[in-house]
Amino acid sequence: MDAPQNAIEAIHLRRVFSRAERGSGLKAALKNFVSPRFIEKVAVDDVSFHVPRASCVGVVGANGAGKTTLLKMCAGLLHPTSGSIRVLGSVPAERERSYLKRIGMVMGQKSQLWVDIPAGDSFDLLASIYEVPAAVYKQRLDELVKLFGVEKHLGVQVRRLSLGERMKFEIIASLLHRPDLLIMDEPTIGLDLLAKDTIRDFIREYNRLHRTTILLSSHDMDDILEICDRLLIVARGKIRFNGTVEEFRSASHTFTHQIRELLKE
Amino acid sequence: MSLTTLWKLMRNSFIRDMEFRINYFILIFATVITFFMELAVFAQIYEGREQVGDLPKTAALGFIILGSLIRSCTSLWQVIFEFVEQIRDGSFRTYLLQPIHFPSYFFAQVTGPKFLTWTLSILGVLALKMSPRFDALLAPAHLPYFLPALALSLMVNWQIYLTLVYAGFWTEEATFMLVAFNLGVGIFSGSILPLSWLPETLQRVLHYSPLPLLGDFPIKAGLGLLSGPEFSRYLVQAVVWMGALAFVNAALWRAGTKRFEAFGG
After folding, report:
1. What are the boundaries of each domain within chain B?
2. For residue B262, which residues of chain A lie inside 8 Å, CB to CB?
3. Touching check for B253 and chain A: CB below 8 Å?
4. Percentage of chain B surpassing pLDDT 90?
5. Contacts of A125 (CB under 8 A, 6+ apart)
6. pLDDT at site A261
7. Could you point out which of A246, B17, B118, B198 has its C-alpha 20 to 30 Å from the C-alpha of A69?
8. Contact assignment for A109 to B264 by CB distance below 8 Å
9. Structure pTM?
10. At CA A230, angle to CA A73 and CA A43, rounded to 5?
11. Phi, psi of B264 (to 5 degrees)
């Protein structure tokens, strides 16, 4: 049987969070202590979309628009409140072993490495967890470390690395098992221009060489324009645009301005 | 998870723990201080007496020493607090993204840092065995009972800690349960004082709980204070509690990961 054309297929996806809410001050704190109040927040609201295999999709949206919730549901970190999603033919929330071995996730603001020990020790462990044969692991690690130019930092504790170096190691960690889908949430956040360029070049090249489907969320429009071939614009939990970057460009000659207008809606 | 992965996990957690050298000094200092304090109080109160409660004086002395060692070998603080904190701040997601069996991962991560404590405890026992006053302590004839009792005690102990970690999926204040457990377990497991010295009603209640398995069982087995039927009863209890806790933990994991909100970007 042929593999499905789409890497991700979501139908009427919805995610609602229950959140404690209270005012500020002592009185509100006391009131909350006795009787906490919860409100419901719809983070993703009846969303349907698909992502073709081997494409590189930029997920764009304002803060709190629902981008990260969407990415987390794709990764299987969050269960949808309703609707369905299939990623690489699997239901992500079931977190089957075979599925987890086919995805990788990089979060700009959270580390998946053990921060108190050198990255090399974490890589060694990850290779074992993902059952990457020793020779293949060594070859991939050499390749990735050279590409990013971080050979001399392999023996340094992760917490002592600069943000840019750490992010390069995070990306290496998520690629050691060569996933079919790579989910990246703001991978260039807080990085300088040179580090951003290195990471952008790398992601673009990696997508081209290995035909890995990439889902990338970023607030930096240059990330999207330089790396992605498709665009998913999210505003207030709903999808405002899902198509190629070229389609979006042809609809408007001022790319960033057009996105800004969509996000304001 | 393969044995190689488990070994690498234990190795990494041991390497990480060695980064915090002062912790080891505090641990050794606290153990030695507690041990000598208990001995001094004991000597003052029971000087000249050959029987302490229902135990011969030498057995009571062995009880205090073995109890102190078992407590330092089984009590878990830092790693457990970290797991609960990771659930609270969302970084627990790393374990959900990797193809791992979390209870095995947990077991390896809490065991690694204990290597040094266990080595020091074995050396401590060997040093004490040079004095004839400690003949009853882990005599060769008691080892076939002590070792399985200790292994079962550790496994029940890890399952209880796992339950407490999973409580973090329901409450942001699960650390209070960990503190309460760590403070209470010394007394109610019979590792600070023999359970037979506690009020009878309390003893009866405790025997319906898994707590005596964590102290009373391995200590008495190590001192040869358990009759055949008592040893068998504890053995059956340990297996039943382990099965029950494993079942409860599996259910808590399924429900907890469904509730997990993976906070933060």
Report:
1. 3-262
2. 72, 77-78
3. no
4. 37
5. A114, B5, B8, B9, B12
6. 67
7. A246
8. yes
9. 0.84
10. 30
11. 85, 165
